[in-house]
Specification:
Elements (H helix, E strand, L loop, with lengths): L2 E4 L14 H5 L11 H16 L3 E6 L2 E5 L2 E12 L4 E10 L19
Parallel strand pairs: 1-2
Antiparallel strand pairs: 2-3, 4-5
Amino acid sequence: MIGMPITVPQGSTPGSEPTSENDKKQNKVREEYPLSFAEAAAFLRELADTLEKGSKIEMGLSQQQIQLAPDEPITLEITYREDAKKKKMEVELEIKEHFGSAGKGAGRPTLKPVE
């Protein structure tokens, strides 16, 4: 499996979020990046191309280089919230490197562009 480096867009800086003691024990890192539509789309295209090629994911995250050889299935979680002040949709991909075999996914939701 060939590695493909995925880069966070130039000029973006991660949002700060305190790391809990539990996260430190699990070697967990979380960063949020404020991105323009174009930057977010470019990042997602890079990630999509890497996944489609079956390549190893390589990325600089929180001052460390991470490498992940992803396996299927990938979990896609979509959450939608609406209140009087705003609407919010969260899209989360869970990409894992399994240390054993994993089953195939059941498909994906479809996107319909709004015209």
